[in-house]
Amino acid sequence: MKLNLKVGLAGSIGAAVLYTLMQSWGFKLVAISGVVFVLVSGVCTFFALRVVLKFGGRGKFGSMHLGLFLAVLLWCLGEATWGIYEVGLHITVPFPSLADVFYLAGYLPAIISVLLVVKFFSRGLSEIKVLVSSLLGLMIIGIVFSFLLDPLLSSSTGVLTEVLDLAYPSLDSVLLILAIMMFLIFEGAPPSTPWLWISVGIILTTIADMSFSVGTLQGWY
User: Fold this and answer.
1) For 24-43, what is the mean pLDDT?
2) 142-169 in b/e burial notation, b at 16+ Cβ within 10 A?
3) HEC letters along the chain
4) Is the confidence at residue 207, as pLDDT, over 80?
């Protein structure tokens, strides 16, 4: 288990460094990114489905498993749709688009499943941990919205775009705080390592989404 985690962490860091070095590749990088994102989310969907098929989708744990599966499935469909726009239709930033339907739909099962995890294992969540997770989440949210507020107020984009620009960071904020709570529950508990890493993945995903929202409005893309 520890070896697999180390390999996975090393691979993630290596991929991030490689992606940074490949920024000058232009459209080739766009195509590679599209394929990689679909493959990664597809692999997550496959393993989430295996968990549901093995343990079932009923009961408290079943609801958690099913919710996470539906979330990664919808996000995988979002990545695939985004890739079609980017690579197939050569639309650099397909936003808003059909991909947003899948992305946004995935938040509901994700939030519900993480909320169930936090509620079920709430004994491991002390008042201090609730306070820490809330403060960390609010701090990150505050930083993000400080970058979002001015571009949103001065933006001349349509109403739909502005609604989506607010919807993503708002939903990410809820999911981020819950994911931090989930992380603090399982931190230091070796038997719960899979849940710990799921929480880390969700935290990184929400921060990446918030960064994308900021980057889109700031004109970084």
Assistant:
1) 80
2) eebbebbeebbeeeeeeeebeebbeebb
3) CHHHHHHHHHHHHHHHHHHHHCHHHCHHHHHHHHHHHHHHHHHHHHHHHHHHHHHCCCHHHHHHHHHHHHHHHHHHHHHHHHHHHHHHCCCCCCCCCHHHHHHHHHHHHHHHHHHHHHHHCHHHCCHHHHHHHHHHHHHHHHHHHHHHHHHHHHCCCCHHHHHHHHHHHHHHHHHHHHHHHHHHHHCCCHHHHHHHHHHHHHHHHHHHHHHHHHHHHHCCC
4) yes
- Both tokens of 80, joined, read 């695939």
Distance CA 101, CA 161 (A): 13
Q: How many CB atoms lie within 10 A of CB 17?
A: 10
Out of 14-23, 82-91, 127-136, give the one with best mean pLDDT.
82-91
pLDDT, tens digit (0-9, with 9 covering 90-100), for 49-72: 999 998 887 777 888 999 999 999
What tokens were used for 177?
């705080």
131 has a pLDDT exceeding 90: no
Any idea of the CA torsion for 166, 172, 175, 178, to the nearest 10 degrees? Answer: -100
- pTM, two decimals, is 0.82
